[in-house]
Write a structure and sequence with these properties.
- It is built from three helices and 14 strands.
- The protein is globular, with a radius of gyration of 19 Å.
- The chain is about 20% helix and about 35% strand.
- It has a six-stranded mixed β-sheet with strand order 1-2-3-4-10-8, with no helix packed on it.
Length: about 200
């Protein structure tokens, strides 16, 4: 009987340990880069640039999306994405006009992401890269490409801008891609704490 009385205690401790760990992220693919695999869609999110915008009204997320396997093509636009903060509040992407008018740091972000690009590794090595640029950097120079039709074995990379989440940048956030005839995919990620270009 004494042994049986220990079982609830051990189970309870395990449950408490899991609860203390908090929500889990998607696969930690590289530093600040997370990956989620769907039936046909693969989505990677890099959050490094967002870490340098803790006090700004908008945060940038670098994303790469690829489609594999036979089947219909998938249309992806900025409206395909939703950002969920740690409290579950949904945030739609900022409009291009809003960012072009009210956000002066796009050039800085572009330079930063060239220095610290999203890591895709060999993920899309057998796929064709398609052009995409939801928020071109320089008005009159960059060409806005905000509709990407992914066919089998194609992929693209772009930057998304979201209003800074009401709950802040702590905890696990979720980038959701939905529509296009494919099941929604949630990429759960964290934004690193970066001070002076280094994680604290």
């Amino acid at each position: 009987m004494k042994g049986l009385r220990l079982v609830p205690v051990v189970v309870g401790a395990a449950v408490l340990a899991l609860g203390a760990a908090g929500p889990t992220t998607s696969e930690d693919y590289a530093y600040s880069t997370y990956r989620e695999l769907g039936d046909r869609l693969t989505v990677l999110v890099d959050s490094y640039a967002a870490a340098l915008h803790d006090d700004d009204p908008y945060i940038p997320l670098s994303v790469a999306v690829g489609l594999s396997g036979p089947g219909k093509s998938v249309l992806v636009t900025p409206e395909s994405f939703t950002l969920l903060d740690q409290d579950g509040r949904a945030h739609n992407p900022a409009s291009y006009q809003e960012i072009a008018s009210n956000y002066p740091k796009r050039q800085f972000d572009a330079l930063l992401m060239r220095s610290y690009p999203i890591v895709v590794g060999s993920q899309f090595s057998t796929s064709l890269r398609l052009a995409a640029d939801f928020y071109p950097t320089m008005a009159g120079r960059g060409i806005r490409i905000d509709r990407v039709e992914l066919g089998p074995f194609t992929w693209f990379h772009t930057v998304l801008y979201f209003p800074r989440p009401q709950a802040g940048l702590e905890g696990v956030l979720t980038l959701r891609i939905s529509g296009g005839g494919e099941p929604p995919i949630d990429v759960r990620f964290r934004i690193p704490r970066v001070v002076g270009g280094r994680e604290s």
